[in-house]
Design goal:
about 375 residues; single chain; six-stranded antiparallel sheet; about 25% strand
Length: about 375
């Protein structure tokens, strides 16, 4: 076997926002290292850091799932990804981080240090992808619930499968490079519990600003991200947690005595004040996305968990933004809900989240729309 530091591999593709350090740190769900090899064997040297939530990894070969495992913290460890392969055939190997950044932990990280090939093996050029897509979302986009049976309700990382979400499937089906920014429980304006600090937009221009610890900062997580001209498509799937927060108790910041409540009128409609916050926040986020992705089509989608409050406000925000800015490259898409399509146990996800069928149908709808708009 012969070994290579990741920085020494000329022919590689890195999916997702990451750092510029010699050791490859994968932060976001579905971030990945991808190589095209001619080799009878392929091994990777991985390590992780975390407090309580270990990262999980999935391996795909030539676009098909092969295996999945956790990476325990400690010294770097070699993992054999495949062996006995035809050494004359090119094989595309993708190593995904299945787990999202864990905002409650100051050290949660996954590292890819080295790769190893058989003695006669070599890295081959990768074929350029047709599109570049960015996905912004919450637990659905992080793949929460895509492992485990429907009865599982423990909040643990083994139930996350970022490599098989609607986002990852859309990208694979369209032969697209992609990146994901997603965080469980977070939203456009506030999180599932009404916490207004749990908002994705303030971190959009950083590598992985939701990884807030000093250790993660040292890895480049909080640095400004270089968009390099931006993506061809940006898919936003935010609003589910904003919607759910209206049905939670009032949120109280620890350092303040005052509580604030998101208010519904007697007819179930949102108060004028909260409506304005949602609409203005959505418009501001669209402006921020456009600033960094000047040529992208922006698709704002929702519905994989049935929503009743936020969608009309997002639709209003999109319409107002388009009218005020003259930007015509923005649209919305309602996806099929888990409540409507998941009938069998194998359709369903764990932790009350969308299961495989809902993600597959969402990917199909997005693929159809993106093909029409490309």
């Amino acid at each position: 076997m012969k070994t290579f530091k990741i920085s020494e591999i000329e022919h590689k593709r890195i999916l997702g926002r990451t750092d510029s350090h010699k050791t490859l740190a994968l932060f976001w769900a579905a971030s990945a290292l991808e190589v095209n090899v001619k080799s009878s064997e392929f091994h990777v040297l991985l390590s992780s850091e975390y407090d309580t939530s270990e990262p999980w990894v999935s391996v795909y070969i030539n676009g098909s799932f092969v295996t999945r495992f956790m990476v325990e913290k400690g010294e770097p460890r070699w993992f054999c990804i495949c062996r006995g392969m035809n050494p004359e055939k090119e094989n595309l190997i993708t190593i995904y981080k299945d787990t999202q950044p864990m905002t409650g932990e100051s050290r949660h990280s996954l590292f890819v240090h080295e790769a190893a090939l058989s003695d006669q093996g070599k890295f081959c050029p990768l074929k350029p992808r047709k599109l570049k897509i960015e996905f912004v979302g919450d637990s659905i986009t992080s793949g929460e619930g895509l492992a485990g049976n429907p009865e599982e309700m423990d909040w643990i990382t083994q139930w996350f499968v970022g490599s098989n979400t609607y986002a990852a499937q859309t990208a694979r089906n369209l032969d697209a490079d992609f990146s994901v920014l997603s965080q469980c429980g977070w939203g456009l304006c506030w999180g599932w519990d009404g916490n207004r600090n749990s908002r994705i937009p303030p971190y959009y221009e950083q590598v992985c600003g939701v990884a807030w610890g000093d250790y993660q900062k040292s890895l480049g997580a909080q640095e400004k991200w270089n968009f390099n001209g931006g993506s061809d498509f940006v898919v936003v799937n935010l609003g589910t947690n904003d919607n759910g927060a209206f049905f939670q108790p009032p949120w109280q910041e620890k350092e303040f005595k005052d509580k604030y409540r998101l208010t519904l009128s007697a007819d179930g409609s949102v108060s004028a004040q909260d409506s304005k916050v949602i609409i203005d926040s959505a418009k501001d986020f669209l402006k921020l996305i456009r600033k960094n992705n000047p040529d992208a089509v922006i698709i704002w989608c929702w519905g994989m968990i049935k929503l009743d409050i936020v969608p009309p406000l997002i639709q209003t925000a999109v319409e107002e933004y388009m009218k005020e800015s003259g930007d015509k490259r923005v649209c919305t898409l309602e996806l099929d809900s888990m409540e409507a399509v998941e009938k069998l146990a194998e359709d369903k996800g764990s932790r009350g989240h969308p299961g495989p069928k809902t993600h597959r149908l969402a990917a199909m709808k997005l693929c159809d729309l993106i093909k029409k708009l490309s």
